[in-house]
């Protein structure tokens, strides 16, 4: 492989974090390539209708957001290849990073890599979930979509920390009525959060139904809204229909990092640990950005900022490739 | 002062970081107030013409960006008061944060505070600097504006790390010719950076002129461009005129944090240390966001993300005000 085939930076994943990294790297005139596994870049945000919490965009649809980011990258000469699923990451003895693509059929080489494969929300897989997600009535993120349910009735599903915490958030900040169901007889969340949930149920119109599962989300005839949801008590098998305006499904996220297991340390949930000031992983030349990063805030603005920070570190790395490590004013060393 | 006069969150500074925090806090239906010292919100970015590196905005002017952010905040009921210069920060025994405004003439109370006063670029103060900054030909940020000088001749001014580092960046990534001047006979920057500068001068069209100062930036007759710059050797008093397309002034930044000295620990340059995962300062209830934060990346996207992260932490803080401290998966404790 000749030198001309070595990219300055390859970005794995063409979602907002990857595209933001691509913008900064390409604008710095680095030879930049984004590898996107799907047929289109964008990732998770492509599934989002109205975004109203990205700073300086009062309202924008996910696909429109991605299209703008894509054009920005290309304006500065950044390349985007779709249908490229990266399955292997390896640092060679000469310091170049090798990426195995599409089951090892292709190999790409880069002087630096930004990992931005994102995370997917875990789905329930019940009838109506996908259809009503497309209609914008099934959500997986309270911070993102809670504000759309002011004075409405929503159903929340899940039993972990996020489910309990975000149900309290919905019930106290936005909704008129909230129902939370969980398939077990007890919540899995921390005790302090569960106590707060029950306290909220005394003060607000919040129903807690255990052990219940969501069997079906039934759309209105025009498919635009939820007519009702059907929940079932798994102990008594009793079925109940509820009129709700929205469904929030809080059953976890899956970072798209399974392929990294042999190359990098991951936390127990599969997220990639990184220096939050530089986005450096422990592998020299390899950065991480966006929703697959450990402790990521999981918002569009923060994912983009991750990409920006990672790309800005590339020139530091090229200046002195042997200096990889904690930033000089890391919290660890400097205190904060 | 009655409870109704206590804000859930007061944000000090109406620049991009403060407005982004205001968007998230107001959208969470917290009673949110932004205090801006100037007659208009926006801060430093108001002085920027073309922004082309904010993700999903291919081209936008600073004032337009701010106007959009402002409308976003107000859409969700966030309040913005201008002409309010905060000069004092104090946490009362009851946990509320007290802000002294306009030399103590007014006092504001809040359950939480986001400090986003920003930083200002240090100016040279030479004739033509302000006029040609307005014309977009004098810049203080290479990452922001380097790409506008592809194949052009620019003058860089300064002798510290940023000056030397960013001059190399300009010379190697963008410009056709670069001249750097510094008023002393030696650069103040780290040795490794200075060595790289001299190495770059051998490979690229880069002139290093010491000890020289910039006496004047002379505009073309229409005021739209730089006709030439006049530099002077302070040892020989010899004057030289150079034809350049742009001037980059790298003589430091001044965080707007002097008023915080008695309330919070600042680093030696005046920046506010914070947990980079939560934006928490050491004072319970007080967060920091944007360019005044220690280790901030000083980009529009990263300032906005700071504001988002700080605002998302407010509800965590209200849940358990006594739990203030490092985030559970802080780099210090969990490793990264």
* Overall tally of domains of chain A: 2
On the 0 to 100 scale, the average pLDDT of chain A is: 94
The first-level CATH class name of the largest domain in chain A: Alpha Beta
H/I helix tally of chain A: 8
**What does the main sheet of chain A amount to?**
7 strands, mixed
Distance between the termini of chain A: 45 Å
**CATH fold annotation of the largest domain in chain A:** FAD/NAD(P)-binding domain
Stretches with pLDDT under 50, minimum 5 residues of chain A: 328-336
Question: Over the alpha carbons, how many angstroms does the gyration radius of chain A reach?
Answer: 22 Å
- Following the backbone from N to C, one meets helices and strands of chain A in this order, namely EHEEEHEEEEEHEHEHEHEEEEEEEHH
Tell me the CATH architecture of the largest domain in chain A: 3-Layer(bba) Sandwich
- Using a beta-carbon cutoff below 8 angstroms, give the protein chain pair with the largest interface and the number of residues from each chain: A-B, 60 and 60 residues
> What is the CATH superfamily classification of the largest domain in chain A?
FAD/NAD(P)-binding domain
Helix content of chain A: 25-40%
Kindly state the number of beta strands of chain A.
19
Anisotropy-based shape of chain A: elongated
Structural class of chain A: alpha/beta
Oligomeric state of the chains?
A: homodimer
Provide key terms for this protein.
2 domains; 5-stranded parallel sheet; FAD/NAD(P)-binding domain; 26% helix; 7-stranded mixed sheet; disordered C terminus; 8 helices; alpha/beta; homodimer; 336 residues
């Amino acid at each position: 492989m000749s030198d001309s085939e070595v990219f300055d930076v390859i970005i794995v994943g063409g979602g907002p974090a990857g595209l933001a990294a691509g913008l900064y790297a390409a604008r710095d005139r680095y030879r930049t390539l984004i590898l996107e596994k799907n047929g289109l870049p964008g990732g998770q945000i492509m599934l989002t209708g109205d975004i109203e919490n990205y700073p300086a965009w009062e309202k924008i649809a996910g696909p429109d957001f991605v299209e703008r980011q894509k054009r920005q990258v290309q304006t500065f000469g950044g390349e985007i290849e779709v249908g490229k699923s990266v399955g292997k990451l390896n640092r060679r003895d000469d310091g170049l990073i090798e990426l195995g693509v599409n089951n090892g059929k292709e190999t790409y080489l880069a002087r630096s890599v930004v990992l931005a494969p994102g995370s997917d929300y875990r789905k329930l897989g019940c009838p109506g979930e996908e259809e009503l997600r497309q209609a914008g009535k099934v959500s997986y993120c309270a911070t993102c979509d809670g504000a759309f349910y002011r004075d409405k009735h929503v159903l929340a599903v899940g039993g972990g920390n996020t489910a309990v915490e975000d149900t309290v958030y919905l019930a106290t900040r936005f909704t008129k009525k909230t129902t939370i169901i969980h398939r077990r007889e007890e919540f899995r969340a921390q005790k302090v959060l569960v106590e707060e949930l029950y306290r909220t149920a005394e003060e607000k119109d919040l129903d807690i139904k255990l052990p219940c599962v969501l069997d079906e989300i039934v759309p209105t005839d025009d498919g635009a809204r939820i007519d009702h949801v059907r929940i079932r008590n798994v102990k008594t098998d009793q079925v109940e229909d509820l009129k709700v305006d929205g469904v929030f499904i809080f059953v976890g996220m899956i970072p798209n990092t399974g392929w990294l297991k042999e190359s990098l340390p991951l936390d127990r949930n599969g997220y990639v640990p990184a220096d939050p000031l530089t986005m450096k992983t422990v592998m020299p030349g390899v950065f991480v950005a966006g929703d697959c990063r450990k402790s990521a805030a999981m918002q569009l603005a923060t994912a983009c900022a991750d990409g920006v920070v990672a790309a800005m570190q590339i020139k530091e790395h090229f200046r002195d490739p042997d200096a990889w490590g904690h930033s000089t004013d890391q919290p660890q060393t400097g205190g904060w």
